[in-house]
Amino acid sequence: MSSAKTSYKALLSAVVSCFLLALAGCVTNAPAVTGAATLTDVATVPQTTPGTEDETAAESETTPALTEKNIDPEETQVEKTLRLYIDGREVPVIWQDNDSVSALKELAENGLTVGMSMYGGFEQVGPLGKTLPENDRQTTTKSGDIVLYSGNQIVIFYGSNSWSYTRLGHIDLSETEMTKLLSNGNVTVTLTVND
Questions:
Q1: Of 31, 35, 134, 155, which sees the most CB atoms within 10 A?
Q2: Which domains occur in the chain, in start order?
């Protein structure tokens, strides 16, 4: 009976070892993901030899074990985020991916404050102090839209208008919230870039 028990344990140990080796092979061949934990450390899995009485004295084989690697913060790249504040309140913006937004991000690198003026009862307009790349298209705006006008003015809408603009982004607030922020007089917009 002891021999059958030893053979069973040896078989079980071999199956577990094969499973761990297969699992380790899948993980180490997987494509690397930036910032993800990786598998690196080695653990010992006891392997019994058939016919030995003392299973604790059996030789060991090593297989990769699942452990986290410390992540070096310098290895992970963080995209610089352009942030917009209206009278000191940060508002959630979904920015377009275009040359105008890239240039605006560069302009805001050290902070950019724009004095805005109400115009037409549906928008606030302010000078950027520099001309940005344009990609104007006939557009019907809606509340929350941020556009570039004449290459050198930023416009934020709390109403709607049709004109030729370059889209910069959209403030993710309701029309009611946008109206409260922008329809009660001139505002100050601040643009910053954070790492």
A1: 155
A2: 2-75 (no CATH), 81-194 (2.40.100.20)
